[in-house]
Amino acid sequence: MPRYRPAAMPTGSCQPAFARCAPSAGRRQDSPRACRRLVRCLALLAVAGEISLLIGGTPSRALGSALLAPAVGAADGALAGTRIADPPTPSAALFSNAAGLAAFETTTVTSSLGLGFGRSSIRASQPPGYRDSNTVVTGIPDVGVVLPLGWWRFAAGAYGSTGSQFVADADPARRVGRFVSETIIAAFPLAIAYRASDRVSVGAEVQPLFGQLRTRFPVLGLDFRSKVNGPGLQGMVGIAARPANSAAVGLAVRSPGAVWMRGRMPLPGGPRQDVALDVKMPTQVFLGATWQALPRLALSASVRYTAASSLGRSILRFERTPQLDSSFVPDAKDEWKFALAAEYAFHTGLVARLGLSRASRIVGTRGVNPLVFDGEDTKLAAGIGRTWGRWTVDATAGYNFATTRNIPAEAALLLPGRYAMQGAIVLLGVTHRR
User: For the whole prediction, is pTM greater than 0.90?
Assistant: First the structure.
Protein backbone atom coordinates (compact mmCIF):
# COMPACT_ATOMS: atom_id res chain seq x y z
CA MET A 1 0.00 0.00 0.00
CA PRO A 2 1.40 3.44 -0.80
CA ARG A 3 1.96 5.46 2.37
CA TYR A 4 0.37 8.76 3.21
CA ARG A 5 2.98 11.54 3.43
CA PRO A 6 2.12 14.77 5.28
CA ALA A 7 2.94 17.77 3.10
CA ALA A 8 4.92 19.39 5.91
CA MET A 9 7.23 16.37 6.31
CA PRO A 10 10.30 16.36 4.04
CA THR A 11 10.93 13.16 2.10
CA GLY A 12 13.52 10.90 3.70
CA SER A 13 12.95 12.10 7.26
CA CYS A 14 11.65 9.94 10.10
CA GLN A 15 7.86 10.03 9.95
CA PRO A 16 5.35 8.44 12.30
CA ALA A 17 3.42 5.27 11.64
CA PHE A 18 2.39 4.47 8.06
CA ALA A 19 3.37 8.01 7.01
CA ARG A 20 6.98 6.88 6.58
CA CYS A 21 8.26 6.49 3.04
CA ALA A 22 11.54 5.39 1.54
CA PRO A 23 13.82 8.24 0.34
CA SER A 24 12.78 9.40 -3.11
CA ALA A 25 15.07 9.11 -6.11
CA GLY A 26 17.36 12.08 -6.48
CA ARG A 27 16.99 12.98 -2.80
CA ARG A 28 19.43 10.46 -1.33
CA GLN A 29 21.04 11.72 1.84
CA ASP A 30 24.62 10.42 2.14
CA SER A 31 25.42 9.30 5.68
CA PRO A 32 28.54 10.60 7.39
CA ARG A 33 31.34 8.04 7.28
CA ALA A 34 31.38 7.62 11.05
CA CYS A 35 27.63 6.99 11.14
CA ARG A 36 27.95 4.37 8.41
CA ARG A 37 30.67 2.57 10.31
CA LEU A 38 28.57 2.67 13.48
CA VAL A 39 25.41 1.22 11.99
CA ARG A 40 27.36 -1.46 10.10
CA CYS A 41 29.02 -2.55 13.31
CA LEU A 42 25.64 -2.63 15.06
CA ALA A 43 24.17 -4.67 12.23
CA LEU A 44 27.00 -7.20 12.41
CA LEU A 45 26.59 -7.40 16.19
CA ALA A 46 22.86 -8.05 15.92
CA VAL A 47 23.30 -10.71 13.23
CA ALA A 48 26.04 -12.37 15.31
CA GLY A 49 23.65 -12.45 18.26
CA GLU A 50 20.98 -14.01 16.06
CA ILE A 51 23.38 -16.71 14.87
CA SER A 52 24.40 -17.53 18.44
CA LEU A 53 20.72 -18.02 19.35
CA LEU A 54 19.90 -20.17 16.35
CA ILE A 55 22.79 -22.60 16.83
CA GLY A 56 21.78 -23.29 20.40
CA GLY A 57 23.17 -20.49 22.51
CA THR A 58 21.65 -19.15 25.69
CA PRO A 59 17.84 -19.13 25.45
CA SER A 60 16.01 -15.88 25.91
CA ARG A 61 14.56 -15.61 29.41
CA ALA A 62 11.09 -14.36 30.07
CA LEU A 63 9.30 -13.01 33.11
CA GLY A 64 5.60 -12.52 33.63
CA SER A 65 3.36 -13.28 30.69
CA ALA A 66 6.37 -12.74 28.43
CA LEU A 67 6.33 -16.52 28.32
CA LEU A 68 4.73 -15.33 25.08
CA ALA A 69 6.81 -12.72 23.24
CA PRO A 70 5.01 -9.33 23.33
CA ALA A 71 6.79 -7.81 20.30
CA VAL A 72 9.86 -8.27 18.11
CA GLY A 73 12.66 -5.74 17.60
CA ALA A 74 13.56 -2.32 18.95
CA ALA A 75 10.96 -0.25 17.07
CA ASP A 76 8.11 -2.70 17.66
CA GLY A 77 9.09 -3.08 21.31
CA ALA A 78 8.92 0.68 21.91
CA LEU A 79 5.41 0.65 20.44
CA ALA A 80 4.33 -2.27 22.67
CA GLY A 81 3.56 -4.40 19.63
CA THR A 82 0.59 -2.20 18.67
CA ARG A 83 1.40 -1.76 15.00
CA ILE A 84 -0.63 -4.65 13.61
CA ALA A 85 -1.89 -2.43 10.80
CA ASP A 86 1.54 -1.17 9.69
CA PRO A 87 4.45 -2.98 11.37
CA PRO A 88 7.51 -0.70 11.57
CA THR A 89 10.08 -3.30 10.42
CA PRO A 90 10.08 -6.54 8.43
CA SER A 91 10.74 -8.48 11.65
CA ALA A 92 7.67 -6.94 13.28
CA ALA A 93 5.53 -7.76 10.25
CA LEU A 94 6.71 -11.37 10.27
CA PHE A 95 5.74 -11.55 13.95
CA SER A 96 2.32 -9.88 13.97
CA ASN A 97 0.91 -9.42 10.44
CA ALA A 98 2.54 -10.49 7.18
CA ALA A 99 0.19 -8.20 5.24
CA GLY A 100 2.17 -5.25 6.59
CA LEU A 101 5.10 -6.28 4.39
CA ALA A 102 3.28 -4.73 1.41
CA ALA A 103 4.09 -1.24 2.76
CA PHE A 104 7.85 -1.67 2.19
CA GLU A 105 8.59 -0.15 -1.21
CA THR A 106 12.28 -1.10 -1.38
CA THR A 107 14.41 -4.03 -0.28
CA THR A 108 14.66 -3.62 3.49
CA VAL A 109 16.85 -5.46 5.97
CA THR A 110 16.49 -5.09 9.72
CA SER A 111 18.06 -6.65 12.80
CA SER A 112 17.94 -5.98 16.53
CA LEU A 113 19.88 -7.16 19.52
CA GLY A 114 18.54 -6.72 23.03
CA LEU A 115 19.58 -7.43 26.58
CA GLY A 116 16.99 -8.59 29.06
CA PHE A 117 17.44 -8.23 32.80
CA GLY A 118 15.15 -10.22 35.05
CA ARG A 119 14.82 -11.04 38.73
CA SER A 120 12.55 -13.63 40.30
CA SER A 121 12.14 -14.80 43.88
CA ILE A 122 10.36 -17.46 45.90
CA ARG A 123 9.46 -17.32 49.58
CA ALA A 124 7.90 -20.63 50.47
CA SER A 125 5.47 -21.10 53.34
CA GLN A 126 6.12 -24.86 53.22
CA PRO A 127 8.81 -25.76 54.07
CA PRO A 128 9.09 -22.72 56.35
CA GLY A 129 12.14 -20.56 55.80
CA TYR A 130 12.91 -21.53 52.21
CA ARG A 131 13.96 -18.43 50.27
CA ASP A 132 15.50 -18.06 46.86
CA SER A 133 16.09 -15.30 44.29
CA ASN A 134 17.79 -15.25 40.91
CA THR A 135 18.89 -12.60 38.44
CA VAL A 136 19.41 -13.36 34.74
CA VAL A 137 20.83 -11.38 31.82
CA THR A 138 20.34 -12.58 28.26
CA GLY A 139 20.59 -11.63 24.59
CA ILE A 140 17.40 -11.19 22.54
CA PRO A 141 18.08 -11.01 18.78
CA ASP A 142 15.93 -10.89 15.64
CA VAL A 143 16.47 -10.43 11.90
CA GLY A 144 14.19 -9.84 8.91
CA VAL A 145 14.38 -8.98 5.22
CA VAL A 146 11.71 -8.09 2.65
CA LEU A 147 12.12 -8.08 -1.14
CA PRO A 148 9.56 -6.16 -3.28
CA LEU A 149 8.68 -7.56 -6.70
CA GLY A 150 5.92 -5.60 -8.37
CA TRP A 151 2.76 -5.92 -6.29
CA TRP A 152 4.30 -8.80 -4.36
CA ARG A 153 6.55 -8.87 -1.31
CA PHE A 154 8.71 -11.83 -0.24
CA ALA A 155 10.23 -11.96 3.23
CA ALA A 156 12.17 -14.16 5.64
CA GLY A 157 13.44 -13.77 9.17
CA ALA A 158 14.06 -15.33 12.57
CA TYR A 159 13.12 -14.53 16.15
CA GLY A 160 12.34 -16.22 19.46
CA SER A 161 8.60 -16.74 19.85
CA THR A 162 8.87 -18.28 23.33
CA GLY A 163 11.71 -18.23 25.82
CA SER A 164 12.01 -18.65 29.56
CA GLN A 165 14.33 -19.69 32.35
CA PHE A 166 13.34 -20.45 35.94
CA VAL A 167 15.90 -21.42 38.58
CA ALA A 168 15.34 -22.25 42.25
CA ASP A 169 18.48 -23.19 44.16
CA ALA A 170 18.70 -26.17 46.48
CA ASP A 171 18.40 -25.86 50.25
CA PRO A 172 19.58 -29.16 51.75
CA ALA A 173 18.76 -28.02 55.30
CA ARG A 174 15.08 -27.86 54.31
CA ARG A 175 15.23 -30.84 51.94
CA VAL A 176 14.52 -28.76 48.85
CA GLY A 177 16.41 -29.75 45.70
CA ARG A 178 17.42 -27.60 42.76
CA PHE A 179 14.80 -26.71 40.12
CA VAL A 180 15.81 -25.59 36.62
CA SER A 181 13.64 -25.08 33.55
CA GLU A 182 14.96 -23.55 30.31
CA THR A 183 12.79 -23.24 27.21
CA ILE A 184 13.38 -21.80 23.78
CA ILE A 185 11.13 -21.93 20.73
CA ALA A 186 12.61 -20.05 17.77
CA ALA A 187 10.65 -19.19 14.61
CA PHE A 188 12.04 -18.92 11.05
CA PRO A 189 9.12 -17.42 9.08
CA LEU A 190 8.89 -17.32 5.30
CA ALA A 191 6.22 -14.91 4.08
CA ILE A 192 4.53 -13.49 1.03
CA ALA A 193 2.32 -10.39 0.78
CA TYR A 194 0.25 -8.93 -2.03
CA ARG A 195 -1.00 -5.38 -2.47
CA ALA A 196 -4.52 -6.00 -3.69
CA SER A 197 -5.21 -2.27 -4.11
CA ASP A 198 -3.95 1.10 -2.94
CA ARG A 199 -5.79 0.56 0.34
CA VAL A 200 -5.77 -3.20 0.98
CA SER A 201 -3.00 -5.78 1.27
CA VAL A 202 -3.00 -9.43 2.29
CA GLY A 203 -0.24 -11.72 3.49
CA ALA A 204 0.54 -15.25 4.58
CA GLU A 205 3.50 -17.07 6.03
CA VAL A 206 4.71 -20.47 7.08
CA GLN A 207 6.80 -20.68 10.25
CA PRO A 208 9.27 -23.52 10.69
CA LEU A 209 10.09 -23.75 14.40
CA PHE A 210 12.81 -25.21 16.56
CA GLY A 211 12.22 -25.95 20.22
CA GLN A 212 14.34 -27.03 23.17
CA LEU A 213 13.44 -27.75 26.79
CA ARG A 214 15.89 -28.55 29.58
CA THR A 215 14.62 -29.45 33.05
CA ARG A 216 16.09 -30.46 36.38
CA PHE A 217 14.01 -31.29 39.43
CA PRO A 218 14.13 -33.40 42.61
CA VAL A 219 11.90 -36.43 43.18
CA LEU A 220 12.13 -38.47 46.42
CA GLY A 221 15.61 -37.16 47.04
CA LEU A 222 16.81 -38.06 43.53
CA ASP A 223 17.97 -35.53 40.93
CA PHE A 224 16.23 -35.93 37.56
CA ARG A 225 17.54 -34.12 34.47
CA SER A 226 16.16 -34.13 30.94
CA LYS A 227 16.72 -32.34 27.65
CA VAL A 228 14.51 -32.56 24.57
CA ASN A 229 14.55 -30.69 21.28
CA GLY A 230 13.08 -30.87 17.81
CA PRO A 231 11.33 -29.15 14.88
CA GLY A 232 7.88 -27.65 14.60
CA LEU A 233 5.54 -25.81 12.27
CA GLN A 234 2.98 -23.01 12.43
CA GLY A 235 1.42 -20.51 10.00
CA MET A 236 -0.24 -17.10 9.73
CA VAL A 237 -2.58 -15.12 7.48
CA GLY A 238 -3.34 -11.40 7.70
CA ILE A 239 -4.90 -8.35 6.12
CA ALA A 240 -4.13 -4.63 6.36
CA ALA A 241 -6.41 -1.85 5.14
CA ARG A 242 -6.59 1.92 5.12
CA PRO A 243 -10.21 3.11 5.29
CA ALA A 244 -8.93 6.72 5.24
CA ASN A 245 -5.63 8.43 4.53
CA SER A 246 -5.14 9.05 8.24
CA ALA A 247 -6.12 5.60 9.54
CA ALA A 248 -5.08 2.00 9.09
CA VAL A 249 -6.36 -1.26 10.57
CA GLY A 250 -4.85 -4.73 10.61
CA LEU A 251 -6.01 -8.23 11.48
CA ALA A 252 -3.91 -11.40 11.58
CA VAL A 253 -4.44 -14.96 12.76
CA ARG A 254 -1.63 -17.34 13.67
CA SER A 255 -2.75 -20.94 13.22
CA PRO A 256 -2.37 -23.66 15.83
CA GLY A 257 0.85 -25.58 15.40
CA ALA A 258 3.16 -28.03 17.11
CA VAL A 259 6.77 -28.59 18.09
CA TRP A 260 7.87 -32.23 18.33
CA MET A 261 10.70 -32.58 20.86
CA ARG A 262 12.54 -35.79 21.67
CA GLY A 263 15.47 -36.74 23.89
CA ARG A 264 16.89 -39.18 26.42
CA MET A 265 17.70 -38.90 30.10
CA PRO A 266 19.66 -41.07 32.54
CA LEU A 267 17.81 -42.65 35.42
CA PRO A 268 19.53 -42.44 38.84
CA GLY A 269 21.38 -45.73 39.19
CA GLY A 270 19.75 -47.20 36.09
CA PRO A 271 19.46 -47.12 32.27
CA ARG A 272 18.47 -44.18 30.12
CA GLN A 273 14.87 -43.53 29.16
CA ASP A 274 13.22 -41.78 26.22
CA VAL A 275 11.59 -38.42 26.88
CA ALA A 276 9.05 -36.76 24.58
CA LEU A 277 7.18 -33.47 24.49
CA ASP A 278 4.76 -32.38 21.77
CA VAL A 279 4.09 -28.68 22.38
CA LYS A 280 0.71 -27.64 21.07
CA MET A 281 1.48 -24.11 19.83
CA PRO A 282 -1.49 -21.82 20.47
CA THR A 283 -3.70 -20.00 18.04
CA GLN A 284 -3.23 -16.21 18.20
CA VAL A 285 -5.38 -13.37 16.92
CA PHE A 286 -3.88 -9.88 16.43
CA LEU A 287 -6.04 -6.79 15.91
CA GLY A 288 -4.71 -3.25 15.75
CA ALA A 289 -5.31 0.25 14.43
CA THR A 290 -3.13 3.29 13.75
CA TRP A 291 -4.41 6.87 13.52
CA GLN A 292 -2.43 9.84 12.21
CA ALA A 293 -3.84 12.23 14.79
CA LEU A 294 -1.52 15.10 13.72
CA PRO A 295 0.94 15.46 10.83
CA ARG A 296 3.74 14.39 13.18
CA LEU A 297 1.84 12.32 15.76
CA ALA A 298 0.53 8.79 15.28
CA LEU A 299 -1.46 6.86 17.88
CA SER A 300 -1.89 3.10 17.82
CA ALA A 301 -3.74 0.47 19.82
CA SER A 302 -3.95 -3.30 19.68
CA VAL A 303 -5.44 -6.35 21.32
CA ARG A 304 -4.06 -9.87 21.11
CA TYR A 305 -5.75 -13.10 22.09
CA THR A 306 -3.68 -16.25 22.62
CA ALA A 307 -5.29 -19.64 23.19
CA ALA A 308 -2.45 -20.46 25.59
CA SER A 309 -4.47 -23.14 27.37
CA SER A 310 -3.16 -25.48 24.63
CA LEU A 311 0.20 -25.36 26.40
CA GLY A 312 -1.44 -27.07 29.35
CA ARG A 313 -2.41 -29.97 27.09
CA SER A 314 1.22 -30.41 26.03
CA ILE A 315 2.57 -33.26 28.19
CA LEU A 316 6.21 -34.04 28.93
CA ARG A 317 6.29 -37.86 28.92
CA PHE A 318 8.88 -40.20 30.42
CA GLU A 319 9.18 -43.74 29.03
CA ARG A 320 10.09 -45.67 32.20
CA THR A 321 8.82 -43.28 34.88
CA PRO A 322 5.33 -42.23 33.76
CA GLN A 323 4.63 -40.99 37.28
CA LEU A 324 6.85 -38.02 36.37
CA ASP A 325 4.71 -37.06 33.33
CA SER A 326 3.76 -33.40 33.61
CA SER A 327 2.19 -30.54 31.71
CA PHE A 328 4.47 -28.15 29.82
CA VAL A 329 2.56 -25.25 31.44
CA PRO A 330 0.39 -26.57 34.31
CA ASP A 331 -3.08 -25.07 34.68
CA ALA A 332 -2.51 -22.96 31.55
CA LYS A 333 -4.94 -20.12 30.79
CA ASP A 334 -5.66 -18.14 27.64
CA GLU A 335 -3.99 -14.73 27.41
CA TRP A 336 -5.40 -11.31 26.56
CA LYS A 337 -2.92 -8.52 25.83
CA PHE A 338 -3.97 -4.87 25.42
CA ALA A 339 -1.58 -2.11 24.34
CA LEU A 340 -1.45 1.60 23.50
CA ALA A 341 1.37 3.59 21.89
CA ALA A 342 2.29 6.98 20.48
CA GLU A 343 4.95 8.01 17.97
CA TYR A 344 6.08 11.58 17.29
CA ALA A 345 8.33 12.63 14.39
CA PHE A 346 10.72 15.60 14.51
CA HIS A 347 12.08 17.60 11.55
CA THR A 348 15.59 16.25 12.10
CA GLY A 349 14.86 12.65 11.12
CA LEU A 350 14.20 11.73 14.74
CA VAL A 351 11.19 9.73 15.99
CA ALA A 352 10.21 9.32 19.64
CA ARG A 353 8.03 6.38 20.75
CA LEU A 354 6.16 5.40 23.91
CA GLY A 355 4.21 2.19 24.53
CA LEU A 356 2.25 0.58 27.37
CA SER A 357 0.87 -2.96 27.49
CA ARG A 358 -1.01 -5.17 29.90
CA ALA A 359 -1.30 -8.96 29.55
CA SER A 360 -3.14 -11.51 31.65
CA ARG A 361 -1.29 -14.39 33.30
CA ILE A 362 -1.23 -17.75 31.57
CA VAL A 363 -0.22 -19.95 34.53
CA GLY A 364 -3.18 -20.58 36.83
CA THR A 365 -2.92 -20.71 40.61
CA ARG A 366 -2.78 -24.50 40.66
CA GLY A 367 0.06 -24.51 38.14
CA VAL A 368 2.53 -22.13 39.78
CA ASN A 369 5.74 -23.91 40.78
CA PRO A 370 9.51 -23.28 40.72
CA LEU A 371 9.73 -24.58 37.13
CA VAL A 372 7.26 -22.07 35.67
CA PHE A 373 5.28 -19.11 36.96
CA ASP A 374 4.12 -15.70 35.77
CA GLY A 375 1.77 -12.88 36.73
CA GLU A 376 -0.36 -10.07 35.40
CA ASP A 377 2.15 -8.47 33.06
CA THR A 378 2.46 -4.67 32.71
CA LYS A 379 5.19 -3.21 30.51
CA LEU A 380 6.23 0.39 29.79
CA ALA A 381 8.67 1.11 26.94
CA ALA A 382 10.19 4.22 25.37
CA GLY A 383 12.43 4.54 22.35
CA ILE A 384 13.87 6.71 19.63
CA GLY A 385 14.61 6.19 15.95
CA ARG A 386 17.21 8.19 13.99
CA THR A 387 17.56 8.09 10.21
CA TRP A 388 20.65 8.92 8.16
CA GLY A 389 19.87 8.47 4.47
CA ARG A 390 19.09 4.81 3.92
CA TRP A 391 20.04 3.77 7.45
CA THR A 392 17.89 3.91 10.58
CA VAL A 393 18.99 3.12 14.13
CA ASP A 394 16.33 2.39 16.77
CA ALA A 395 16.95 2.26 20.52
CA THR A 396 14.44 1.15 23.15
CA ALA A 397 14.33 0.70 26.92
CA GLY A 398 11.49 -1.04 28.70
CA TYR A 399 10.47 -2.00 32.21
CA ASN A 400 8.34 -4.93 33.36
CA PHE A 401 6.63 -3.83 36.57
CA ALA A 402 7.00 -6.10 39.56
CA THR A 403 4.25 -8.64 40.08
CA THR A 404 3.62 -11.14 42.88
CA ARG A 405 1.61 -14.33 43.30
CA ASN A 406 0.59 -15.70 46.71
CA ILE A 407 -0.11 -19.41 46.37
CA PRO A 408 -1.95 -21.09 49.27
CA ALA A 409 -0.94 -24.57 50.40
CA GLU A 410 -4.26 -26.12 49.37
CA ALA A 411 -3.81 -24.93 45.77
CA ALA A 412 -0.05 -25.30 45.33
CA LEU A 413 1.43 -27.81 42.92
CA LEU A 414 4.85 -27.44 44.63
CA LEU A 415 6.21 -25.04 47.25
CA PRO A 416 3.31 -22.80 48.31
CA GLY A 417 4.17 -19.23 49.19
CA ARG A 418 5.02 -15.91 47.56
CA TYR A 419 6.36 -15.78 43.98
CA ALA A 420 7.60 -12.45 42.63
CA MET A 421 9.24 -11.18 39.43
CA GLN A 422 10.24 -8.04 37.58
CA GLY A 423 12.51 -7.15 34.69
CA ALA A 424 13.85 -4.65 32.18
CA ILE A 425 15.07 -4.68 28.61
CA VAL A 426 17.21 -2.56 26.29
CA LEU A 427 17.16 -3.02 22.51
CA LEU A 428 19.22 -1.63 19.65
CA GLY A 429 18.12 -2.14 16.07
CA VAL A 430 19.43 -1.28 12.62
CA THR A 431 17.39 -1.03 9.39
CA HIS A 432 18.75 -0.50 5.88
CA ARG A 433 16.65 0.40 2.83
CA ARG A 434 18.12 0.05 -0.65
Answer: no
